[in-house]
Amino acid sequence: MSGPAAPPENSSPENARPENARRETPPPQDITETNRAVARMLASAFGGTPSVARHRAEAGPSHVDILTCREAPRPGLSAYATVTLANHPLYRDGAEFPGRCEILGLAAAPNFANALAACAFQVIDGRWFLAPGIVFPGILAGRGLSDTLRHVLFVPPFPFENRQQTIAAPDVNVAFLLAVPISDAEYEFAQASGGDALEDLFAERGTDLFDLARSSVL
C-alpha cells in the first residue's frame, strides 16, 4: 500500500471557484478540459464553498487534485471529489478497462480529502480496480480519521444522483463512485454477502454513512 499522501498544495481548475473568488495560484498545466468540466459539474452539485488542492504521494511523482466544498450538502458536512483521477487508466486483471472514474466523499472530518487521495494513489500506482461494491481494505488505518472504520466501500453516488452525471469526454467516459468508510465486521460481511447486501443493511438501519465516529452496524 502506498504511503500517506503529502500535504496538498493549492490549485484551481478553471471555474471550480466562484468568479469573484481570488485565485492564489494559476491552474497547473496538466489540467484538461475534461478535468475542468468535472470540477464545474461537481462544484455545482455539491454547493457550499469550493476549492481545489493538489495532493502528492510521499513516494513517487503521483499526484491528484481534489475538490472540497465546505458546508455542503448540509451544514456540518463537507463534500470532496477527485477531479483528475480520470487522467489515469483503470486496470482489471492486468488489462486496461474501457472507462475512467472519479471518487466522491462526504464527511464532517476536515481532512477527509487525504482519504480520497490515498484511494486515488492505490488506483494510480497500485492499479487497484474501482467499481461499485469493491472495498479498499485498510485504506483508512493509521490516518487519524476514525477509531472504528478502517476500510472504504465504493457505491454509486446516491446523495447526488439527481444532480450528477457521467461525463462523456471525447476519448473516454468518466463515472463517479462514492467512498463509504466501513468497519472490520462490515468489510467481512461485504466479502461474504456482497456490497449490495451491505448497502441494504445500511438502509434498513438508517445508518449515517458520513459520521466517521459511528458504531459498526454488525
Produce the secondary structure layout:
Blueprint: E1 9-11, H1 33-46, E2 49-56, E3 63-70, E4 78-82, E5 90-92, E6 95-97, E7 100-107, H2 113-124, E8 135-136, E9 151-155, E10 167-168, E11 173-182, H3 184-193, H4 195-205
Helix pairs in contact: 3-4
Supply Rg. Answer: 16 Å
| SSE topology string | EHEEEEEEHEEEEHH
Query: How much strand content do the residues show?
Result: 25-35%
Output the number of helix runs.
Answer: 4
Instruction: Give the N-terminus to C-terminus distance in angstroms.
Output: 27 Å
Mean pLDDT over the residues: 85
Q: Low-confidence spans: pLDDT under 50, at least 5 residues?
A: 10-24
What global shape is seen?
Answer: globular
Helix content: 10-25%
What structural class do you assign from the helix and strand content?
Answer: alpha+beta
Care to count the β-strands?
Answer: 11
Strand count, sense and barrel status of the largest sheet are:
9 strands, mixed
Give an overview in words.
This protein has 218 residues and is of the alpha+beta class. The protein contains 4 helices and 11 strands; from the N terminus they run βαββββββαββββαα. The chain has helices spanning 33-46, 113-124, 184-193, 195-205, and strands at residues 9-11, 49-56, 63-70, 78-82, 90-92, 95-97, 100-107, 135-136, 151-155, 167-168, 173-182. The strands form 2 sheets. Strands 1, 2, 3, 4, 7, 8, 9, 10 and 11 form a 9-stranded mixed sheet that branches. Strands 5-6 form a two-stranded antiparallel ribbon. A hairpin with a 4-residue loop joins β10 (167-168) and β11 (173-182). α3 packs across α4 (195-205). The radius of gyration is 16 Å and the shape is globular. It starts with 8 loop residues before the first strand and ends in a 13-residue tail after the last helix. Mean pLDDT is 85; it is low at 10-24.
